[in-house]
Amino acid sequence: MDRAEILSVIKRNILEIVEDIDESDLDPQKSMKDYGATSLDIVEVVSSSMRELRVKVPRSELNSIENIDGLVDALHAAALQKAL
Amino acid sequence: MSHQTGIEKVRVFPGTLSLKIEDLCRARGNDFASVQRDLMTDERSLLAPWEDTVTMAVNATDGLLNEDELRTVELLIVATETAVDQEKPISSWVHRWLGLPSSCRNFEIKHACYGTTAALRMATAWLQGQRGRDCRALVVTADENLLPLNKPWEPITGACASAIVVSNRPNFLVMNEDEWGVFASEVTDVIRPSMRIETGNSETSLISYMDALEGAYEDFIRRVGRPVDFGAEFAKHIYHLPFAGMGLRAHCILASIAMGLGRKEAKEHFAEKVAPSLHYSRRIGSSFGSSIFLALFSLLDHCNDIATGDKLSIFSYGSGSCAEFYTAALGPHAVEVASHGRLGETLDERHVVTVEDYEKSEAARNTAIGEPKYTPDFEAFDGWFQKRYVGTGAMILDRVEDHRRQYRRA
């Protein structure tokens, strides 16, 4: 599972859960909050993405993620760890 | 020989004061429309200065059982995360003020909002060991938030108590003792490191809730050992509601796991199967271990498409964390039990307080915790004590002297 695949899953979940976003606007360097996502939206995006990708990131690590790219990194690292 | 066990009666006591979340949002500069849309909170229940978790526990239970029924109570468990003493359990006061037999075993337990489900499990297991003897267990849960002023979670705080009678006459809810799944995982999401402080991380708690929902459902599927048709098997779904909006988020996740539904379809399924259970949660705010019973009452008071024997899925979560997904069936008198509880009317009868009075009262309550001497302000809230309490026989905290809590009937 590469980063592009993980980003695509996260993007799809953001578009489904957070209202009024256009896919072309989504910049991975930005935080979901920049697009008007609430804490509940973010939790649902993270939870759905983890489940879909079948990986788990420790809850303590999730608190320090600052943008969409950070979430991709965390999920990617978890996927690599799982593959070992 | 097996006997049907479950919940015979329930009563919910939401306190006698309320605060409008719209007023709170205005005072804090928050957008009420977004709070209403995401968190789905409209009001919160608030405790009067002369009420605490002891009086709430007693006031929830008073009159629920008649004299003959009280004599059959052999087990009393109080579940709370708002204990008033680190040694003496709330159950001791409940035992005394209800006039329960001296042979009635009683204790207090804690596991955040899951504690009530744990107590219910202990009560049903104990009852099954009584081999059909005519006896009852009483589970009482009572909680309130600690000083939430200006905290991010202030719009979802509340106070509530419930009394749950467990017996071989499950008129309200029949427990399916072999259909459950548990998920336990240590986490520091919401904590009370002292009797005055409540703190934590909301996002961590929400993620934990979601993990626990998924984990408990997986354990449930593994244990039942048969295919479960999630869409057809359950008439409705009940979720632990730290705030009503959690019901939507939880159901979207579970509908995706169990039925493969996309978010749009999951929201439609939610509207039919979950939304009717949220009405009272919207009006009480955080109700801790009571939330499942509020949801059941809301369902029974607002739904015409449910009937005796209908199977429900129930999810309970407690910070810390432990969670359980289990099933139960509506008992033959479930609608009457809810209607007898008059919860909607009781909520309407609460006195609406101003933000200023709420702040003053909560600050005074917090300052009094652990102090050797305390006298509640019986003049607070426009003479509400005189208007609502005097002559009713409701239990109240009269004063604290030398750390000893003195209660009396109003």
Strand content of chain B: 25-35%
Look up the CATH topology of chain A.
Non-ribosomal Peptide Synthetase Peptidyl Carrier Protein, Chain A
CATH architectural label of chain A: Orthogonal Bundle
Structural domains of chain A: how many: 1
Largest sheet of chain A: none
Uncertain spans of chain B: none
Rg calculated over all Cα atoms of chain A? 12 Å
User: What is the number of strand segments of chain B?
Assistant: 16
Radius of gyration of chain B: 20 Å
Care to describe what's here?
The complex is a heterodimer of chains A (84) and B (410). Chain A has helices at residues 3-17, 39-53, 59-62, 68-83. With 84 residues, chain A is mostly helical. In chain A, helix 1 (3-17) crosses helix 2 (39-53). Chain A is globular, with a radius of gyration of 12 Å. The model of chain A has no long low-confidence stretch (mean pLDDT 90). Chain B has 410 residues and is α/β, with parallel strands linked by helices. Chain B has helices at 21-28, 32-39, 53-61, 67-70, 90-98, 115-128, 202-224, 230-233, 245-259, 263-273, 279-284, 291-302, 334-341, 343-348, 355-368, 380-389; strands at residues 6-13, 17-20, 43-46, 73-79, 105-109, 136-144, 159-167, 173-184, 190-194, 197-200, 236-239, 311-318, 322-330, 351-353, 395-401, 404-409. The chains are: A mainly alpha (84), B alpha/beta (410). Chains A and B meet through helix 2 and helix 3 of A and helix 2, helix 7 and helix 9 of B.
Structure summary:
The complex is a heterodimer of chains A (84) and B (410). With 84 residues, chain A is an all-alpha fold. Chain A is built from four helices and no strands.
Highlighted features:
heterodimer, A: 84 residues, mainly alpha, Non-ribosomal Peptide Synthetase Peptidyl Carrier Protein, Chain A, 0% strand, globular, B: 410 residues, alpha/beta, Peroxisomal Thiolase, Chain A, domain 1, 2 domains, three-stranded mixed β-sheet, 16 helices, 39% helix
